[in-house]
Specification:
Layout (H helix, E strand, L loop, with lengths): L1 E4 L7 E2 H7 L8 E3 L7 H5 L6 H13 L5 H12 L10 E5 L2 E5 L9 H19 L3 E6 L3 H10 L5 E8 L5 H8 L6 E7 L2 H13 L1 H7 L1 E3 L5 H6 L2 H9 L7 E6 L4 H11 L4 E8 L4 H8 L1 E3 L19 H8 L4 H14 L1 E3 L2 H10 E5 L2 H15 L5 H12 L9 E5 L7 H8 L20 E4 L2 H20 L1
Parallel strand pairs: 5-15, 6-7, 6-9, 7-8, 8-16, 10-11, 10-15, 11-14
Antiparallel strand pairs: 1-2, 1-3, 4-5, 12-13
Helix pairs in contact: 3-4, 3-11, 4-5, 5-6, 6-7, 17-18, 17-19
Bound molecules: pyridoxal-5'-phosphate.
Pyridoxal-5'-phosphate binds next to helix 12.
């Protein structure tokens, strides 16, 4: 299997190259040249199978010319053995025809663990085989950084540098990043915003000398492997609800469009999916885009679901590419428009193609709080604010008895956002046992000014020192 860029100016690349690079060299996002199709019999066979078996069946064809199957099986087993639920991603019923797919039973309590745990093992494996080291850099508003740090801690071939905006992540999120004791993990509190942190990481990737010298590797959700690994739970949950003999709809709390795009891929692979519903908080660029055809960036508003406080949804570029019949020239034009004038318009044809598969619902802060209260009152279910946004959106999409079951993706554990839950229900949720001591552990991080040179110097110093240690 080869991978092509949405901007059409990078040569087709093997899986391993997309895995280590993240972004394509022309600034585009990688997608497979074709989608391997699973037979309905194969999908029906997923019912009752362990998560790891389904994962292997779905992922293996995408790696076809890379890592052998045997190693993949071992890596998948290792990636999911630390999840606190035997089903890995259990399904809970909330109402008639309404279910929550719980994706937060991994080490850092957010759905990012599902992809990151496997990504880390795969990257380490590939680097070992090639006798190379890499430097992972990333900016985070909370969950991605914690998931990456937990997944890569202690691995021999990589150093990890995570930038987060100083004072702008929750205490739980910060402590999850700063209390991990591993020599290869470096956490940086940047004196700036999340956008500053992200700009800094982008600049480093565009700095060719630094990029090659440190073998920079990106693990944010533009990395195709992450999106691919997220398709697995669409299959396992549909199988529980009678798929492929019955269509299922999914409602996804959306920020960067990675998680819901995985649902779109699942459909391309052969899973019968009825609707894909984009649930957004008041950062509603995608809902506005589906309604009007105009993608127009506004300023980010902080909400109680911070992992969705995003205006530029990077993975939406992948859907645009597909909706335009993979016309890379059009994508280059749209993305240039985004750079120059903070927006672009989508032609009626492609807009229609998007609307044929997706709905979008935006949910206000008050509605989110009401939903947390209602789920608790009516179903005894504590939903974190991100999940609550999607439950609220699900209730508003036309539900009736004969419609396909609606599966809401539960993306974070309620214990991660205790203040929002307490405000809505009066109950302060606990953290699961393995994190109970989080507030007693020693924190370790460096505070750096929002200065590109200083950050690069910091990273270069530590990455080269680590490389020398490994070499000797
Ligand atoms: C990252 C995240 C999201 C948004 O997922 P995208 O793939 O960026 O759309 C939603 N909820 C939580 C808790 C997250 O951490």
């Amino acid at each position: 299997m080869k991978y092509i860029s949405t901007r059409g100016e990078a040569p087709p690349a093997p899986f391993i190259e997309t895995l280590l690079a993240g972004l394509a060299p022309d600034g585009g996002l990688y997608l497979p040249q074709t989608y391997p199709r699973l037979s309905q019999a194969a999908i029906a066979g997923f019912a009752g199978q362990p998560y790891a078996n389904v994962a292997e069946a779905i992922i293996a064809p995408f790696l076809a010319d890379g890592t052998e199957t045997l190693a993949l099986r071992e890596m998948i087993a290792a990636a999911y053995k630390n999840f606190r639920h035997p089903a890995v991603t259990p399904l809970t019923q909330l109402d008639s025809n309404l279910f929550v797919l719980e994706l937060f039973h991994g080490p850092t309590l957010a759905f990012k663990d599902l992809a990151m745990q496997l990504l880390a093992k795969l990257i380490d494996h590939v680097l070992k085989a090639q006798g190379e080291r890499a430097t992972i850099i990333g900016a985070t508003s909370g969950d991605t950084g914690a998931a990456a740090i937990e997944a890569f801690a202690g691995l021999k071939q990589v150093d990890v540098f995570i930038l987060f905006p100083h004072g702008r992540v929750s205490d739980v999120q910060r402590r999850q990043m700063t209390t991990v004791e591993a020599e290869n993990i470096h956490t940086i509190a940047l004196e700036g915003t999340f956008d500053d942190a992200q700009a800094c990481i982008k600049n480093m990737f565009n700095h060719k000398v630094l990029r090659d010298e440190l073998n920079l590797c990106g693990v944010n959700s533009i990395n195709f492997a992450r999106v691919l690994f997220q398709t697995v739970y669409y299959f396992t949950s549909a199988a529980v609800l009678g798929g492929p003999h019955r269509d299922v709809s999914f409602v996804v709390p959306t920020g960067n469009f990675g998680d819901i795009f995985a649902g779109w891929i699942a459909k391309r692979l052969g899973l019968p999916v009825d609707r894909l519903v984009i649930a957004t908080n008041s950062n509603d660029i995608l809902a506005r885009t589906l309604a009007s055809g105009h993608y127009a960036v506004q300023t980010v508003q902080p909400t109680q679901s911070p992992s969705m406080d995003i205006q530029v949804s990077s993975n939406f570029e992948r859907l645009l590419f597909e909706a335009h019949g993979r016309d890379a020239a059009t994508l280059r034009r749209l993305m240039a428009g985004l750079r120059q004038s903070q927006g672009f318009s989508i032609e009626p044809g492609p807009l229609q193609a998007i609307r044929a598969e997706f709905d979008a619902v935006s949910v206000t802060e008050a509605e989110t709080t009401q939903e947390i209260a209602q789920s608790w009152r009516e179903a005894g279910y504590l939903a974190d604010p991100h999940t609550a946004v999607a439950i609220s959106a699900a209730r508003r999409t036309k539900m009736n008895a004969s419609a396909s079951p609606l599966v809401v993706l539960g993306t974070a554990h309620p214990g991660k956002f205790p203040d929002a839950i307490e405000r809505a229900t009066g109950i302060r949720p606990d953290l699961p046992g393995h994190l109970a001591g989080l507030f007693k552990r020693k924190e370790r991080f460096s505070i750096l000014p929002n200065d590109q040179n200083e950050i690069e110097r910091f990273i270069r110093d530590r990455a080269t020192r680590a490389a020398k240690r490994t070499a000797s």
